[in-house]
Write a structure and sequence with these properties.
alpha+beta, five-stranded antiparallel β-sheet, two-stranded antiparallel sheet, about 25% helix, binds zinc ion
């Protein structure tokens, strides 16, 4: 994705209040993120570990999604689980169930969308082999990086559309 600014990020959120978007903690390494290798920007709030965020481009616009981390540590240490975006497998809490409040009326009624995601939201780097999943990644795949990137983007689009109720 193209590099984006702090202001881009804070104004991109579609499913949280303006106040929350203003207060949220940016990624620690924001100054030198590997933008060329990112399909989306995802991170855990450095000041609030149960919160996570995801910012992606959709139809030429930035869409930011605020997420609640609802599980992760409770899984047994040897259990494998898979991220539903990039399909990387992890052990020991490397995947967490995250929920996003839906936009609009559905969100006001408390509707959320749950998704199992890489706990550090570094899907783009796992897919490109720039980061290794602890104890995971044992599933042999014949897909190349380009296909995996496309698949991750497709899954991400589906997720964004679910949150936005379309
Ligand atoms: Zn992932």
């Amino acid at each position: 994705m193209r590099p984006i600014t702090e202001r881009d990020i804070r104004t991109s959120f579609v499913n949280c209040s303006k106040g929350e978007a203003t207060r949220l903690g940016l990624p620690r390494d924001f100054a030198d993120l590997p933008w060329d290798d990112l399909d989306f920007l995802g991170w855990r709030d450095p000041g609030a570990p149960e919160r996570a965020y995801l910012v992606a481009e959709r139809d030429g616009r930035l869409v930011g999604i605020a997420l609640r981390v609802t599980s992760g540590a409770s899984r047994s240490f040897t259990a494998r689980s898979m991220c539903s975006l990039c399909l990387t497998t992890h052990t020991g809490g490397g995947v967490a169930l995250m929920t996003a409040r839906r936009t609009g009326e559905a969100g006001r009624q408390g509707n959320t969308v749950g998704q199992y995601l890489c706990a550090d939201l570094a899907c783009s780097l796992y897919v490109r082999g720039r980061k290794d999943a602890a104890g995971g990644a044992a599933v042999e795949e014949s897909l190349g990086v380009a296909e995996k990137v496309t698949r991750t983007e497709d899954n991400l689009r589906t997720f964004l559309d679910k949150v936005r109720g379309s």
